[in-house]
Amino acid sequence: MRILVTGGAGFIGSHLIDRLMAANHDVVCLDNFYTGRKQNLLKWINHPFFELIRHDITEPIRLEVDQIYHLACPASPVHYQSNPVKTVKTNVMGTLYMLGLAKRVKARFLLASTSEVYGDPAVHPQPETYWGNVNPIGIRSCYDEGKRVAETLTFDYHRQNQVDVRVARIFNTYGPRMLFQDGRVVSNFVAQALQGEALTVYGSGEQTRSFCYVSDLVEGLIRLMNSDQTGPINLGNPDEYTILQLAKQIQNLINPEASIKFEPLPMDDPQRRRPDISQAQKHLGWQPMVPLSEGLQQTVEDFSNRLSDRVSPA
Ligand code: NAD
Ligand code: UDP
What is the mean pLDDT of residues 28-49? Predict the structure, then answer.
């Protein structure tokens, strides 16, 4: 099959492309390299069945494909908040153009949505039927509301134009290839501990998140795309940790001497988050396989290798 991955040079997108290429698909990647890196795709660059196109999805493009995995959008609060208007454009115009493309060529379309559509959830854990608690004018809104509109567009194209759609609501995902400067919690703590810096816990550290290893997530995306389920379907790991527990686990794993420092909690930071994955279990036969301890080890190994590449002489 000819498969388009938008945002394919990013963290999740590049792992997805590795799986699609290994399954002998013809893969086209669109990326503007805002948070993605060509290095993530180096092994495919000269492959006859791989094409990398530098393109900003806020502009239209014409392509012939059978499936579209639509991932292009910065995912870290630091990046999506640095140009919030662009984040809204990417989610609204970018998703509109990709749905228009899917409609024209009759491709199946999968939206990488997010647990952020639940905002600071009043229901715990979060099932897909929960409509969320999102501040429409806060600093996270460009992303949260952007993704909510992206979901709306996806379902309107489905109802109005019969586009074959899938919506995945992805919960916090981590693993190798996250950027050092990504700003998300796992990459921050790992980079800080490896470089002998204090781990920065925001607020009291009692807020919770549930962390899914990237290989599990990619498996879920592929199963959803190839299922008969429209979704939305939650994809995430239901093992829930406080941020302080995560800090201590990474401290113990990398450097028990590393200190922890407390910094102010950013505005609208959700207090707790944990997916209800019963729909994914029932309809996709999917559940995460990689425990946090194992996923963190893989992540630390990748970060240490990249760090030694950086400091060693050319
Ligand atoms: P990432 O920032 O590593 O990847 C995003 C990719 O999109 C990058 O390669 C970036 O350059 C590209 N991009 C951004 N704006 C673009 C534009 N206008 N045109 C073309 N390319 C553009 O993030 P990620 O963690 O790999 O996330 C991928 C997708 O999954 C995103 O849509 C994100 O919202 C969603 N998601 C991720 C998580 C997570 O925990 N990682 C959680 C929920 C949802
Ligand atoms: N966080 C933290 N220290 C950091 C980065 C993040 O304590 O260096 C906290 C952040 O305030 C939030 C949680 O970790 O409560 C997860 O943050 P992240 O940016 O990874 O994802 P999101 O908030 O989008 O779930």
Answer: 97
CATH architecture, domain 2-174+212-238+274-289: 3-Layer(aba) Sandwich (3.40)
Range list of β-strands (E), the chain: 2-6, 26-31, 50-54, 67-70, 108-114, 165-170, 173-174, 199-202, 208-210, 212-213, 233-235, 240-242, 260-263
Q: How many CA atoms lie within 13 A of 115 on its CB side?
A: 30
Q: What is the mean pLDDT of the chain?
A: 96
ipTM over 0.95: yes
CA of 49 to the centre of ligand 2 (A): 37
In whole angstroms, how large is the CA radius of gyration of the chain?
Answer: 19
Report the distance separating Cα 45 and Cα 178, nearest Å: 20
Looking only at the bridges linking them, the beta strands covering 212-213 and 2-6 are unpaired
Please choose from 4, 5, 6, 12 the residue to mutate so as to test ligand 1's pocket, defined by most ligand atoms within 8 A of CB.
12
CA angle 248–250–255, rounded 5-degree value: 95
CA of 313 to the centre of ligand 1 (A): 32
The answer to whether residues 140 and 78 touch, using CB atoms and an 8 Å cutoff, is: no
Q: Which residues pair with 208 in a beta bridge?
A: 242
Per the annotation, the verdict on 69 as an active-site residue is no
Maximum C-alpha span of the chain: 58
Whether pTM > 0.90 for this model: the answer is yes
Active-site hit among 69, 118, 143, 213: 143
Q: What six digits make up the tokens of 74? A: 């910065």
CA 225 to chain centroid: 16
* Domain ranges, ordered by start, for the chain: 2-174+212-238+274-289
Q: What angle do CA 78, 80, 81 make, to 5 degrees?
A: 65
